[in-house]
Structures are given as structure tokens and as C-alpha cells.
Amino acid sequence: MTNPLPANATIGILGGGQLGRMLSVAASRLGLKTHIFEPSANPPAADVAHTVTTAPYEDEAALTAFANSVDVITYEFENIPTSALDILESIKPVHPNRRALATSQDRITEKEFLSGLGLTVAPFAAVDTLDDLRAAVDKIGLPAILKTRRFGYDGKGQARIMTPDDVEPAFEAVAGAPSVLEGFVDFSHEVSIIGARGVAGDISCYDPGENVHKDGILDTTTVPANLRPAQRTDAVLLAANILNSLDYVGVMGVELFVTKDGLIVNEIAPRVHNSGHWTQNGCAVDQFEQHIRAVAGYALGDGKRHSDVIMENLIGDDVERIPALAKDGSVAIHMYGKADVKKGRKMGHVNRITGPAK
Amino acid sequence: MTNPLPANATIGILGGGQLGRMLSVAASRLGLKTHIFEPSANPPAADVAHTVTTAPYEDEAALTAFANSVDVITYEFENIPTSALDILESIKPVHPNRRALATSQDRITEKEFLSGLGLTVAPFAAVDTLDDLRAAVDKIGLPAILKTRRFGYDGKGQARIMTPDDVEPAFEAVAGAPSVLEGFVDFSHEVSIIGARGVAGDISCYDPGENVHKDGILDTTTVPANLRPAQRTDAVLLAANILNSLDYVGVMGVELFVTKDGLIVNEIAPRVHNSGHWTQNGCAVDQFEQHIRAVAGYALGDGKRHSDVIMENLIGDDVERIPALAKDGSVAIHMYGKADVKKGRKMGHVNRITGPAK
Prior knowledge:
- The structure is a homodimer.
- Chain A is of the alpha+beta class.
- Helix content of chain A is 28%, strand content 29%.
- In chain A, strands 9, 10, 11, 12, 13, 14, 15, 16 and 17 form a 9-stranded antiparallel sheet that branches.
- In chain A, strand 11 and strand 12 form a beta hairpin.
- In chain A, helix 1 packs across helix 10 and helix 4 crosses helix 5 (107-116).
- The longest helix of chain A has 17 residues, at 229-245.
- The first copy, chain A, is globular.
- The two termini of chain A are 38 Å apart.
């Protein structure tokens, strides 16, 4: 696809969670419709999408009909089965591309890709067996963290190994799934940079945000992050390096550890990212619209920030704080329309505008 | 209705134009669904609404089913037939209420109501016949403007009378519809204030915006408006007076002429208003969310503005400027998803953030 989509074109989105929901809203601002493909019924994105297909990723007829009904396809999560991608790609352009997906789906592929670009990652070793794990611990040292190669998110599929006694329980925790042992990184804080690349190769980045996690889940992102000017430059350059190397189209989230020796890449996400939600109330063009602009072949926003923001996730019964938060004129509420409140479930987030951009 | 709506409740909206579209988006941010009732097919709001009913306002069965499927009913335009309102009100709460609708539907009822509150309006006289018009011109003087009592918007149903020769053509222009002759007001500029009132009687106003029209249609709204502090206070007090007098729930737009003798009320709109679109990029809580908060029984936002904004409507082929506007990092685009570009048709608007709130 080289021409921009016409007004009223339809963006197909794989996945109907909160990211698909906010992508749909952003598409509407550009006069574009969305069609959500999602296996589970009544997903959050259905409330604000023009069309919804409820079908599993194994339903070839549904995938084909979906692809034929849209102008371009994107996704809100990276674990799309290859077989589904084969069908979709044969009918319509899919952005970001297959290589970006394959790279981010597997922690070892990802780390090898990033290392190959000259970027620094945590020390790592592949682990398939308990013997592999013992050898990896000998090589990397402790403490370390064992993570499944695929399907991990929000701290799931992970086990910390602080002492040799933790080795066997950690291996049992990942239940024999192909895994990677990562050495601990001595970092002062975590930041992420949300970058975007358009079809013409143009690149735009938002100012990095500083992330604080709680119980393995993102709790807050504060913008601007605590970074020296040279570190900000490094963050932009490494994001651009990754985006260009993948011939990427769309928004990408890049998580970075800040260490005394420089920035270490933790992981990349080939999609809009929780740590970029602050852009909804800090920028004229937020990350969701930026992603839609990229996949639709439109000009990217320049990433300009008008306000400083603290984004806070509302997890589980944090939603009970909504009535109090609603009374604060500096707080913007973003709920996801999820029917049931569950422990650890992302129910929404708030963006607190803390002042004009500094 | 005194209790706030629960999460996942549904707001019924009469009318599926751009205002309904942006109300739907705002509802989604609060975790609420929307159901649009609209006679014409594929309206702009359908792209972002959970449910759409396509039926005329005379379809009693459709109205009944619609009302039964939602938790509260509101609207994006004031010309709702009384017969439809009778059915809807018998099933679910309708906000703003019938009196607000009736008052704003008829220019004479409106002016008499406003005068009764002690507010200043332009001199006016009812006109049903050509003789009425001649008598009204004698009483009010020229120049003056003849407007139909009902169904006027964006300069439609209006005729200027500059000289006695214009009297007969003006009467023909309104085609015998019940009308009102309004005297010209010697005003320096027009502003509008967007006020909101909650179910508990709480009131919140945004800072007034300054409006410039082109060809009878709103062209730009600039915030802050050029007003002295005492005029700002007057604007808030008169808006509160109107809202309280109508026992109003929801957002109202109040158009004001600024004269050397004070503020004159031009007209009121019992709904979100084009001159309030700037709030989408100037405030954490915009007018659309404020309206949804009010009708859902939630706490109102306090009207706080974080940025100064110039809103510009995109009329007809103004949409051709979108690619250029998209490259400006201070510009937020809001398209309405209308299929056909027509002369004089509101296709979208842009909000240009001009700096931190002054």
C-alpha cells in the first residue's frame, strides 16, 4: 500500500481489547471505520467499532471474509497465529509486518535481533531443559529471571531465581515451555519510548515516559521521564534503528532500562503500548491515532507534547476510586467497558495533566 | 433518576450526526455504551456506537424498543417531535427535559423565557402575516432579521431586511412559516458559554469562546474569548440562571452578543454545541463527556482548561486541507465520517492548541 486510504475506508483490527477500543476511537477522529476480529464475545472494542466479527483465529472462512471487508489490517496484540497471518496477508496488507511480529513473539529471536543491531540487552541463554537452566545459571549468575519465550505479558510466565534453591521451582513454574534465562540488570529506573514509522519511512517519537510497575503490571507512566539529554537522544536513535531495521509501519513500544552504562533494551511491542496512554491527554495526536495514521498511509504527527502527564492504570477494584477521580479537573478518565472487575485486570486508566510541557 | 448509572449501562441518543458520534466516543471513555436512534441510514454516529436503530420518529414500536433497551435517553438536536417524546418519557428518563426542549424549539418561547429571567435579548416581534411583518418593522426599525420560529440552524430559515424593499422578499423567503422579526444588535463580537448542570443541581461552565461565522455557519471558536473579567462573571451567572430555571440536566450552549451595554443572549441550544468542540483538546473533561456525566448522574468535571485552543470547522471542500493540517503537531483532527463532501456541510473540525491556558 502506497496511497493513503480514502475517507470512510475501513481498518481491520485483530483483537478487541482496550487497545483495539482506543484504536477504533482514534480511527473515528480521522473519519475511518474499524472492523474488529476477536474470538471472544462482546469485547471492549465492540462498543466503538463499526463492525465486529466473533470467530476463532482458526476459522479460515471468517478470516477471509474479514480481510475482504477491510482496506488494511493491523492488530492490538502480538500473538497472532502464523496460519491466520498467512490467510490475511494473501488478501490485504498487514501492518506492522510479519517480521516485526515474529521478532517480538519470541524473546530469544527478539534479543538476537536487538543484539545484532548493536543494542545492549540483558545477558540471556535459551532454556529447554532443567540441565539447560543449570548451565545458564552457571553462565549468567544469580539473581536471574526465567521467562517463557512466548505468550508472556504483565509478569505472567516468569519466575525469579534468587538462590540455587529457586532453580527447580522456577523450571516447574514455566511448566517445560521453551524459555530464556535473563540476568538481572542493575538499572535505576525503566522508561519506554513510543516510536512510529510511516509507509514512506518517516519516523516520529514521543518523549519517553518513566514507568513504575506494581505486582508485575504497569502502574504509572510519568512524562517527562528522568533522563539526561544524551539519553533522550539515545532513546530516539535506538527506536529509529529498530523501526528501520524491521521496515516497520505503525507504532511500537520500546521498554528501556536506564543504567549507569547507558540504556538497555528490555523488550519491544509491535503495537500501541500501555506506557503510551499518556499521549491521549498530552498530545494533539495520541499514539492510537499515530498508529492509525501510519497504517492508513497518512502523515504522522510530529510527537509534540503540550502537557506533562502522569498516567495511572486502574487495576481490579481501583475502579472504586473513579467517583473521587472524576471530581479532579486535571484528571481524564479512560474506562475500557469491561463487564466484570477482576483482581489484576486492567479496567481503565487515568491521565493526570500536571502542567504545561516542560 | 437519582443514582449514577452503573458501569456498562447504555445511553440512548436521539440523532446520529457528528454530535451523537462524539457523545458516543465520550461515553466509551466512561465505560458506557450508546444506542443511537436515527431515521437515516449509516449516520456518522453509527461508526462508534454499540447499537443503532434506523427508524423514523413516527415509528412507535421502534421508539418503545429503543427506550426499553437503554438506561437513560438524551439527544443531539432539539427538533424532536412531541409525540416521540411522549412515548420515550413514559419509559425512561429523558435529559435535558421537555421544558428545555420546548423552550429552545421556538424562538419566541425562548425569548420570552429569557426576558422573564431578566436577561437581555434583541428586540423582537412575532410575525405570522405580511401585515404582522410590516407592523413589526415599524415597531423595531431597520435593519432587522426575519427568522422562522422553528427548525432554523446554521443561518437557514433567515432573511435580512435592510430596507423597506426587502420586506416582501423576506416574507416570501420564510414561506409563510410562523416567524419572528429580530432587531439588529450593535455588538462587537459573539461569544458562547458552554454550561452544564448535574442531576443534583451542581453547575459547571467552561471558559467562554469567541465565535466567528462565515456564510451563516460557525467558522472558528477561539479560547479564551476577548472579555473583561466582569463579562466573564456575567456569562457564568446568566448561564447558571438559565440552567437552574429549566431544572436542566446536561450541557447547554448559550450564544451571547457582546455590546457596550453588556451581554445580550442570542439563543440557547439544549445540547452539546459546535462552539464547545475546542474542549476536546483544551480540557481533561470535554463537553461531550460532561454531557454524558450529567445525564448518567456522575460528578461533573470542573471545566478546567489546560490549553488555549482555536477550533476551526471544516466545511465542504475544506477537507482538502487535511493532509496539510495533519503535519502540524499542534493540530488535532476530528472528522465526522460523512460519505459525501457537500457545499456548506460540516465535514469535521480541527482544534489548534495555541499554548498553555492563559
